[in-house]
Amino acid sequence: MSLEQKKMVLEALSAGSERVFELQSSMTALRGLGPDNGGDGEQNKADYLEKWLRGFGIDDIQHVDAPDARVPSEKRPNFIVRIPGRTERTLWILGHLDVVPAGELSLWHTDPWTVTRDAKDEDIIYGRGVEDNQQAVVCGCLLAAALKEHNIVPDLGLGLIFVSDEETGNAYGIQHLLREKPSFVAPGDLVLVPDSGSSDGCFIEIAEKGILWLRVDIEGCQCHASRPDEGKNALTAAAAMILGAAEVEKRFDARNPLFAPDRSTFTPTRHEANVPNVNTIPGKEVFYIDCRVLPCYTLDEVLEAFRALGRDVEERYGVSVRVEKFMSEPAAEPTSEDSAVVTSLKKAVREVLGRECRCGGIGGSTVAVNFREHGIPAAVWALIFENCHSPNEAARISFAIKEAQVFASMLFTD
Ligand SMILES: [Zn+2]
After folding, report:
1. What percent of the chain has pLDDT over 90?
2. Residue 365 Cα to ligand 1 middle (Å)
3. Could you tell me the distance, in angstroms and rounded to a whole number, from the CA of residue 96 to the centre of ligand 1?
4. Ligand 1 centroid to 69 CA: how many Å?
5. What angle do CA 262, 246, 266 make, to 5 degrees?
Protein backbone atom coordinates (compact mmCIF):
# COMPACT_ATOMS: atom_id res chain seq x y z
CA MET A 1 0.00 0.00 0.00
CA SER A 2 2.69 2.41 1.10
CA LEU A 3 4.94 1.28 -1.75
CA GLU A 4 2.18 1.90 -4.26
CA GLN A 5 1.56 5.36 -2.88
CA LYS A 6 5.23 6.18 -3.07
CA LYS A 7 5.27 5.10 -6.73
CA MET A 8 2.27 7.27 -7.38
CA VAL A 9 3.91 10.43 -5.92
CA LEU A 10 7.17 9.82 -7.79
CA GLU A 11 5.24 9.47 -11.04
CA ALA A 12 3.13 12.56 -10.41
CA LEU A 13 6.27 14.59 -9.71
CA SER A 14 7.95 13.45 -12.91
CA ALA A 15 5.21 15.22 -14.90
CA GLY A 16 5.73 18.51 -13.05
CA SER A 17 8.03 20.48 -15.35
CA GLU A 18 5.41 23.07 -16.36
CA ARG A 19 4.62 23.61 -12.70
CA VAL A 20 8.30 24.20 -11.93
CA PHE A 21 8.48 26.81 -14.70
CA GLU A 22 5.30 28.51 -13.51
CA LEU A 23 6.44 28.74 -9.87
CA GLN A 24 9.95 29.88 -10.79
CA SER A 25 8.68 32.54 -13.23
CA SER A 26 6.15 33.99 -10.79
CA MET A 27 8.57 34.04 -7.86
CA THR A 28 11.43 35.63 -9.81
CA ALA A 29 9.09 38.38 -11.07
CA LEU A 30 8.06 39.09 -7.45
CA ARG A 31 11.74 39.43 -6.44
CA GLY A 32 11.76 39.30 -2.65
CA LEU A 33 14.68 41.58 -1.81
CA GLY A 34 15.03 42.43 1.86
CA PRO A 35 15.31 46.08 2.97
CA ASP A 36 19.02 45.66 3.70
CA ASN A 37 19.38 44.84 0.00
CA GLY A 38 17.35 47.86 -1.05
CA GLY A 39 14.10 45.93 -1.59
CA ASP A 40 10.57 46.03 -0.20
CA GLY A 41 10.61 42.60 1.42
CA GLU A 42 9.22 39.13 0.73
CA GLN A 43 5.48 39.74 1.33
CA ASN A 44 4.32 39.52 -2.32
CA LYS A 45 6.17 36.29 -2.81
CA ALA A 46 4.76 34.84 0.41
CA ASP A 47 1.19 35.86 -0.58
CA TYR A 48 1.60 34.27 -4.00
CA LEU A 49 2.84 30.96 -2.52
CA GLU A 50 0.16 30.83 0.12
CA LYS A 51 -2.52 31.33 -2.53
CA TRP A 52 -0.92 28.69 -4.75
CA LEU A 53 -0.89 26.15 -1.91
CA ARG A 54 -4.45 26.97 -0.77
CA GLY A 55 -5.52 26.33 -4.37
CA PHE A 56 -4.74 22.65 -3.74
CA GLY A 57 -6.74 22.59 -0.52
CA ILE A 58 -3.66 22.94 1.67
CA ASP A 59 -4.97 24.89 4.66
CA ASP A 60 -2.75 24.08 7.62
CA ILE A 61 -0.68 27.25 7.27
CA GLN A 62 0.71 29.01 10.30
CA HIS A 63 2.31 32.46 10.20
CA VAL A 64 5.16 33.55 12.41
CA ASP A 65 5.83 36.89 10.70
CA ALA A 66 8.44 39.26 12.09
CA PRO A 67 7.51 42.95 12.45
CA ASP A 68 9.70 45.24 10.34
CA ALA A 69 8.67 48.86 9.82
CA ARG A 70 11.12 49.29 6.92
CA VAL A 71 8.93 47.39 4.42
CA PRO A 72 5.43 48.35 3.10
CA SER A 73 3.66 45.35 4.72
CA GLU A 74 5.52 46.17 7.96
CA LYS A 75 6.34 42.52 8.39
CA ARG A 76 8.72 39.89 7.11
CA PRO A 77 6.72 36.76 6.32
CA ASN A 78 7.63 33.39 7.82
CA PHE A 79 5.19 30.52 7.61
CA ILE A 80 4.87 26.82 8.28
CA VAL A 81 2.78 24.48 6.12
CA ARG A 82 1.82 20.97 7.23
CA ILE A 83 0.49 17.95 5.36
CA PRO A 84 -0.23 15.16 7.82
CA GLY A 85 1.31 11.71 7.53
CA ARG A 86 0.47 8.32 9.02
CA THR A 87 2.79 8.89 11.99
CA GLU A 88 3.61 11.83 14.26
CA ARG A 89 6.99 12.32 12.62
CA THR A 90 7.53 15.12 10.12
CA LEU A 91 10.02 15.72 7.32
CA TRP A 92 10.72 19.47 7.34
CA ILE A 93 11.98 21.20 4.22
CA LEU A 94 13.11 24.78 4.53
CA GLY A 95 13.20 27.34 1.74
CA HIS A 96 14.06 31.02 2.04
CA LEU A 97 11.97 33.59 0.18
CA ASP A 98 14.51 36.37 -0.16
CA VAL A 99 17.08 36.68 -2.93
CA VAL A 100 20.17 38.79 -3.46
CA PRO A 101 20.19 41.77 -5.88
CA ALA A 102 20.88 41.10 -9.57
CA GLY A 103 24.27 42.84 -9.32
CA GLU A 104 25.94 44.26 -12.43
CA LEU A 105 23.19 44.10 -15.10
CA SER A 106 25.56 44.14 -18.07
CA LEU A 107 26.87 40.74 -16.97
CA TRP A 108 23.44 39.16 -17.47
CA HIS A 109 22.52 37.75 -20.90
CA THR A 110 18.80 37.90 -20.01
CA ASP A 111 16.60 40.04 -17.75
CA PRO A 112 17.37 38.77 -14.22
CA TRP A 113 13.73 39.23 -13.14
CA THR A 114 12.17 37.32 -16.05
CA VAL A 115 12.76 33.57 -16.02
CA THR A 116 14.10 32.63 -19.45
CA ARG A 117 14.83 29.24 -20.97
CA ASP A 118 18.24 28.51 -22.45
CA ALA A 119 18.14 28.78 -26.25
CA LYS A 120 19.83 25.39 -26.76
CA ASP A 121 18.70 23.42 -23.71
CA GLU A 122 15.19 24.19 -22.58
CA ASP A 123 15.69 22.27 -19.33
CA ILE A 124 17.91 25.15 -18.17
CA ILE A 125 16.33 28.36 -16.88
CA TYR A 126 17.93 31.68 -15.95
CA GLY A 127 16.80 34.27 -13.42
CA ARG A 128 17.72 35.71 -10.05
CA GLY A 129 16.69 33.24 -7.35
CA VAL A 130 16.08 30.17 -9.52
CA GLU A 131 18.79 28.28 -7.64
CA ASP A 132 19.05 30.23 -4.40
CA ASN A 133 16.62 29.41 -2.96
CA GLN A 134 13.51 29.17 -5.11
CA GLN A 135 14.29 25.62 -6.15
CA ALA A 136 13.87 24.50 -2.53
CA VAL A 137 10.56 26.37 -2.33
CA VAL A 138 9.42 24.86 -5.65
CA CYS A 139 10.30 21.30 -4.57
CA GLY A 140 8.36 21.66 -1.33
CA CYS A 141 5.31 23.07 -3.15
CA LEU A 142 5.44 20.42 -5.88
CA LEU A 143 5.52 17.63 -3.34
CA ALA A 144 2.74 19.12 -1.20
CA ALA A 145 0.53 19.56 -4.28
CA ALA A 146 1.19 16.01 -5.49
CA LEU A 147 0.24 14.53 -2.11
CA LYS A 148 -2.99 16.54 -2.01
CA GLU A 149 -4.00 15.90 -5.62
CA HIS A 150 -3.62 12.15 -5.26
CA ASN A 151 -4.94 11.89 -1.69
CA ILE A 152 -1.73 10.31 -0.51
CA VAL A 153 -0.96 9.99 3.19
CA PRO A 154 2.75 9.17 3.51
CA ASP A 155 4.42 7.57 6.55
CA LEU A 156 5.96 10.88 7.62
CA GLY A 157 4.10 14.16 7.55
CA LEU A 158 5.46 16.87 5.27
CA GLY A 159 6.31 20.21 6.82
CA LEU A 160 7.35 23.19 4.71
CA ILE A 161 9.13 26.12 6.33
CA PHE A 162 9.25 29.37 4.37
CA VAL A 163 11.39 32.12 5.85
CA SER A 164 12.52 35.66 5.05
CA ASP A 165 15.84 37.38 5.60
CA GLU A 166 18.26 34.53 4.93
CA GLU A 167 20.56 36.65 2.81
CA THR A 168 20.99 39.42 5.37
CA GLY A 169 21.41 37.70 8.69
CA ASN A 170 18.25 35.64 9.51
CA ALA A 171 17.13 37.90 12.39
CA TYR A 172 13.66 38.43 10.79
CA GLY A 173 13.59 34.88 9.45
CA ILE A 174 14.55 31.57 11.00
CA GLN A 175 15.89 33.20 14.17
CA HIS A 176 12.54 34.92 14.76
CA LEU A 177 10.68 31.69 14.00
CA LEU A 178 12.77 29.60 16.40
CA ARG A 179 12.46 32.27 19.10
CA GLU A 180 8.65 32.44 18.79
CA LYS A 181 8.13 28.70 18.31
CA PRO A 182 11.18 27.03 19.85
CA SER A 183 9.74 23.52 19.73
CA PHE A 184 7.84 23.32 16.46
CA VAL A 185 10.30 20.64 15.35
CA ALA A 186 9.67 17.50 17.43
CA PRO A 187 12.59 15.27 18.53
CA GLY A 188 11.95 12.48 15.97
CA ASP A 189 11.53 14.85 13.01
CA LEU A 190 13.89 15.22 10.06
CA VAL A 191 15.11 18.67 9.00
CA LEU A 192 16.44 19.33 5.54
CA VAL A 193 17.81 22.63 4.25
CA PRO A 194 18.22 22.45 0.44
CA ASP A 195 20.40 25.58 0.21
CA SER A 196 23.77 24.17 -0.80
CA GLY A 197 24.71 21.07 -2.73
CA SER A 198 26.15 19.73 -5.96
CA SER A 199 25.13 18.91 -9.53
CA ASP A 200 25.56 15.16 -9.00
CA GLY A 201 23.56 15.18 -5.75
CA CYS A 202 26.28 13.25 -3.96
CA PHE A 203 27.21 15.75 -1.27
CA ILE A 204 25.45 16.09 2.10
CA GLU A 205 26.58 19.03 4.18
CA ILE A 206 26.61 18.19 7.88
CA ALA A 207 29.02 20.76 9.32
CA GLU A 208 29.94 24.39 8.86
CA LYS A 209 32.98 26.39 9.88
CA GLY A 210 32.65 29.32 12.24
CA ILE A 211 32.59 32.67 10.42
CA LEU A 212 34.30 35.80 11.67
CA TRP A 213 34.44 38.98 9.62
CA LEU A 214 36.95 41.49 10.96
CA ARG A 215 37.05 45.20 10.23
CA VAL A 216 40.53 46.72 10.53
CA ASP A 217 40.91 50.50 10.97
CA ILE A 218 44.37 51.95 10.55
CA GLU A 219 45.02 55.52 11.56
CA GLY A 220 48.27 57.09 10.37
CA CYS A 221 49.01 60.67 9.38
CA GLN A 222 48.16 62.12 5.96
CA CYS A 223 50.76 64.25 4.12
CA HIS A 224 52.10 65.16 0.67
CA ALA A 225 53.66 62.18 -1.08
CA SER A 226 56.79 64.19 -1.88
CA ARG A 227 57.58 64.52 1.84
CA PRO A 228 56.81 61.04 3.21
CA ASP A 229 58.87 61.54 6.38
CA GLU A 230 56.31 64.07 7.64
CA GLY A 231 53.44 61.53 7.71
CA LYS A 232 52.63 57.96 8.68
CA ASN A 233 51.55 55.93 5.67
CA ALA A 234 48.42 54.01 6.65
CA LEU A 235 48.45 52.05 3.37
CA THR A 236 51.92 50.64 4.03
CA ALA A 237 50.79 49.61 7.52
CA ALA A 238 47.62 48.06 6.06
CA ALA A 239 49.77 46.09 3.62
CA ALA A 240 51.84 44.71 6.51
CA MET A 241 48.66 43.71 8.31
CA ILE A 242 47.24 42.09 5.16
CA LEU A 243 50.39 40.03 4.61
CA GLY A 244 50.37 39.16 8.32
CA ALA A 245 47.01 37.38 7.88
CA ALA A 246 48.85 34.48 6.23
CA GLU A 247 51.14 34.26 9.29
CA VAL A 248 48.11 34.12 11.59
CA GLU A 249 46.67 31.34 9.42
CA LYS A 250 49.85 29.29 9.91
CA ARG A 251 49.34 29.37 13.68
CA PHE A 252 45.77 27.99 13.43
CA ASP A 253 47.05 24.93 11.62
CA ALA A 254 44.60 22.20 12.67
CA ARG A 255 43.24 20.05 9.82
CA ASN A 256 39.82 18.42 9.56
CA PRO A 257 39.20 16.20 6.50
CA LEU A 258 35.43 16.77 6.81
CA PHE A 259 35.96 20.21 5.27
CA ALA A 260 37.27 21.47 1.93
CA PRO A 261 39.65 23.19 2.34
CA ASP A 262 40.52 21.16 5.42
CA ARG A 263 41.95 24.10 7.39
CA SER A 264 40.84 27.45 8.81
CA THR A 265 41.20 30.29 6.30
CA PHE A 266 41.93 33.98 6.95
CA THR A 267 41.40 36.04 3.82
CA PRO A 268 41.69 39.82 3.40
CA THR A 269 38.82 40.90 1.14
CA ARG A 270 37.16 44.31 0.98
CA HIS A 271 39.13 47.53 1.07
CA GLU A 272 37.46 50.93 1.43
CA ALA A 273 38.49 53.84 -0.76
CA ASN A 274 41.24 56.04 0.65
CA VAL A 275 42.61 59.21 -0.95
CA PRO A 276 41.39 60.13 -4.45
CA ASN A 277 44.74 61.39 -5.73
CA VAL A 278 48.15 59.86 -6.33
CA ASN A 279 50.28 62.47 -4.60
CA THR A 280 48.81 62.17 -1.10
CA ILE A 281 49.93 59.64 1.48
CA PRO A 282 46.79 58.17 3.02
CA GLY A 283 46.35 58.70 6.74
CA LYS A 284 43.43 56.32 7.11
CA GLU A 285 42.75 52.81 5.80
CA VAL A 286 39.84 50.46 6.40
CA PHE A 287 39.80 46.87 5.22
CA TYR A 288 38.17 43.57 6.12
CA ILE A 289 39.30 40.00 6.73
CA ASP A 290 37.00 37.03 6.14
CA CYS A 291 37.88 34.20 8.56
CA ARG A 292 36.45 30.67 8.26
CA VAL A 293 37.37 28.83 11.41
CA LEU A 294 37.36 25.09 12.14
CA PRO A 295 35.07 24.18 15.07
CA CYS A 296 38.13 23.30 17.25
CA TYR A 297 38.98 27.02 17.65
CA THR A 298 36.91 29.80 19.20
CA LEU A 299 36.32 32.99 17.25
CA ASP A 300 37.69 34.98 20.19
CA GLU A 301 41.06 33.22 19.87
CA VAL A 302 41.19 34.36 16.25
CA LEU A 303 40.17 37.92 17.12
CA GLU A 304 42.91 38.03 19.78
CA ALA A 305 45.53 36.78 17.29
CA PHE A 306 44.66 39.60 14.85
CA ARG A 307 44.73 42.17 17.67
CA ALA A 308 48.23 40.96 18.58
CA LEU A 309 49.24 41.36 14.93
CA GLY A 310 47.75 44.87 15.05
CA ARG A 311 49.91 45.77 18.09
CA ASP A 312 52.98 44.55 16.21
CA VAL A 313 52.08 46.69 13.16
CA GLU A 314 51.47 49.71 15.43
CA GLU A 315 54.95 49.36 16.84
CA ARG A 316 56.67 48.91 13.47
CA TYR A 317 54.86 51.69 11.56
CA GLY A 318 53.89 54.21 14.25
CA VAL A 319 50.19 54.01 13.38
CA SER A 320 47.20 53.00 15.48
CA VAL A 321 45.31 49.82 14.58
CA ARG A 322 41.82 48.84 15.67
CA VAL A 323 40.50 45.32 14.95
CA GLU A 324 36.76 44.80 15.53
CA LYS A 325 34.23 42.04 14.88
CA PHE A 326 32.11 43.09 11.89
CA MET A 327 30.02 39.89 11.85
CA SER A 328 30.41 36.57 13.60
CA GLU A 329 28.65 33.24 13.47
CA PRO A 330 30.25 30.59 15.69
CA ALA A 331 30.29 27.00 14.42
CA ALA A 332 27.59 24.71 15.80
CA GLU A 333 27.98 21.04 16.70
CA PRO A 334 28.00 19.11 13.37
CA THR A 335 25.08 16.85 12.45
CA SER A 336 26.06 13.22 12.96
CA GLU A 337 26.52 11.05 9.88
CA ASP A 338 24.40 8.45 11.68
CA SER A 339 21.48 10.82 12.30
CA ALA A 340 18.07 9.83 10.97
CA VAL A 341 17.95 12.66 8.45
CA VAL A 342 21.31 11.74 6.89
CA THR A 343 20.52 8.03 6.78
CA SER A 344 17.12 8.64 5.21
CA LEU A 345 18.53 11.12 2.69
CA LYS A 346 21.29 8.73 1.62
CA LYS A 347 18.72 6.01 1.04
CA ALA A 348 16.47 8.33 -0.97
CA VAL A 349 19.35 9.56 -3.17
CA ARG A 350 20.35 5.95 -3.82
CA GLU A 351 16.79 5.13 -4.79
CA VAL A 352 16.00 8.16 -6.98
CA LEU A 353 19.41 9.05 -8.45
CA GLY A 354 21.17 5.69 -8.09
CA ARG A 355 24.13 7.36 -6.39
CA GLU A 356 26.03 7.15 -3.12
CA CYS A 357 26.37 10.31 -1.02
CA ARG A 358 29.38 11.47 0.96
CA CYS A 359 29.11 13.78 3.97
CA GLY A 360 31.24 16.82 4.59
CA GLY A 361 31.55 20.36 5.85
CA ILE A 362 31.60 23.75 4.11
CA GLY A 363 33.10 27.13 4.90
CA GLY A 364 29.87 29.00 4.28
CA SER A 365 26.92 29.33 6.57
CA THR A 366 23.39 28.13 5.92
CA VAL A 367 20.17 28.25 7.92
CA ALA A 368 21.07 24.76 9.17
CA VAL A 369 23.40 26.25 11.78
CA ASN A 370 20.36 27.80 13.50
CA PHE A 371 18.79 24.35 13.92
CA ARG A 372 22.06 22.77 15.04
CA GLU A 373 22.41 25.47 17.69
CA HIS A 374 19.03 24.31 19.03
CA GLY A 375 20.25 20.69 19.13
CA ILE A 376 18.29 19.73 15.98
CA PRO A 377 20.46 17.71 13.56
CA ALA A 378 19.77 19.38 10.20
CA ALA A 379 21.25 18.26 6.88
CA VAL A 380 21.92 20.44 3.86
CA TRP A 381 21.49 18.90 0.43
CA ALA A 382 20.38 20.04 -3.01
CA LEU A 383 20.73 19.14 -6.69
CA ILE A 384 22.10 22.39 -8.13
CA PHE A 385 24.69 23.92 -10.46
CA GLU A 386 26.18 25.85 -7.49
CA ASN A 387 25.95 29.28 -9.12
CA CYS A 388 24.02 31.17 -6.47
CA HIS A 389 24.50 34.97 -6.28
CA SER A 390 26.26 35.07 -9.68
CA PRO A 391 25.01 36.76 -12.86
CA ASN A 392 23.00 34.42 -15.13
CA GLU A 393 21.98 32.32 -12.12
CA ALA A 394 20.70 29.07 -13.61
CA ALA A 395 18.81 25.95 -12.59
CA ARG A 396 17.66 22.78 -14.31
CA ILE A 397 13.95 22.04 -14.26
CA SER A 398 14.83 18.34 -14.10
CA PHE A 399 16.98 19.00 -11.01
CA ALA A 400 13.93 20.39 -9.21
CA ILE A 401 11.88 17.35 -10.16
CA LYS A 402 14.56 14.90 -9.05
CA GLU A 403 15.08 16.85 -5.84
CA ALA A 404 11.34 16.73 -5.08
CA GLN A 405 11.39 12.99 -5.77
CA VAL A 406 14.21 12.52 -3.26
CA PHE A 407 12.13 14.38 -0.65
CA ALA A 408 9.09 12.27 -1.59
CA SER A 409 11.05 9.09 -1.09
CA MET A 410 12.09 10.26 2.39
CA LEU A 411 8.41 10.45 3.39
CA PHE A 412 8.11 6.68 3.13
CA THR A 413 9.86 4.41 5.61
CA ASP A 414 9.62 1.04 3.86
ZN1 LIG B 1 20.37 30.65 -0.04
Report:
1. 95
2. 9
3. 7
4. 24
5. 55
Give the pLDDT band of residue 1 (cuts 50, 70, 90). low
Around ion ligand 1, residues with a beta carbon closer than 5 Å are 132-133, 195
Q: Catalytic positions, please? A: 98, 166
pLDDT at 364 over 90: no
Ligand 1 centre to CA of 164 (Å) is 11
State pLDDT tens for residues 294-329: 999 999 999 999 999 999 999 999 999 999 999 998
Q: 284: CA distance to ligand 1 center in Å?
A: 35
Q: What is the pLDDT of residue 251?
A: 96
> What structural domains does the chain harbor?
2-207+332-410 (3.40.630.10), 210-329 (3.30.70.360)
Of the pLDDT bands very low, low, confident and very high (cuts 50, 70, 90), residue 2 is confident
pLDDT for position 25: 98
At CB < 8 A and 24+ separation, what contacts does 252-256 make? Answer: 252/293, 252/294, 252/297, 252/301, 252/302, 252/305, 254/294, 254/296, 254/297, 256/294, 256/295, 256/296, 256/361
